[in-house]
Predict the structure.
Amino acid sequence: MRVPTAAITAGSLIGGWQLARRTGIRPLGGAVLAAGGVVAGREWARHTSPAVTGALLATYVGAFGLSHPLAKRIGAWPSVLAVAALTAAVSYAAADRRHT
């Protein structure tokens, strides 16, 4: 059974942040983020065009980058949830909707 990339991206953003937060070891969170990007990226490459795959990867990485300044304005949890939801919605619309 195929796991939707929306779940992979949202889960890895939230899970990576939580792992880094709870352990105090930021590279562990980065490893979760990277693993999620690799898994989702492989699925996107299989089911979409190279342009869509690139745009989705940029969205995923950009969401991670956006979460940091956004957290200073609205708090860490709301920031992570917001970017995870945004990334999941974009992943669903661009890739998952066609293959569920």
Notes: The mean pLDDT is 95. The first helix runs from residue 5 to 23. The two ends are 10 Å apart (CA to CA).
